[in-house]
Amino acid sequence: MRSSYTTLMQSKYFNPAFNSAIFDGPVRIYFAQFHEALALKIYFLIQQKLSAEMVKAKEVSKASGANILVMIYPTADSFLLSFEGAEKTPSALEVEKWHEDVVIGLRGPIEDENLDLLIETLRLTMENWRPASLEATSALAEL
Fold this sequence. Notes:
Number of helices: 6
Number of strands: 5
Structural class: alpha/beta
Helix content: 40-55%
Order of helices and strands: HEEHHEHEEHH
Shape: globular
């Protein structure tokens, strides 16, 4: 989905505290300014550990217009407002499809020990990412 910022702002995933973002190709990290250090750490980990996966993700994003949205919620309570059912699991993050995009929500500012979980989640997301618009294009090309 070539989602606009307005569409995102009107979605259940948006939090008014999100006043900053880092865009790197298909990965968009949204956060409150006071979580800038964590957002930059995530950005640099993606650069260091997921360079091959980012190449593929950029191709997928270019062809489909879809993005991977990483949302660093300011608190666990604000996270729970966006991810129904998340209160049943103690996971540091949740992953959901949203139209063509994938949303990875962090249950507040995560600790360093959960950064590996986030990076592995991003790796798996990028490796298995097939937006519906790409599936339809591939099916038409085969005809």
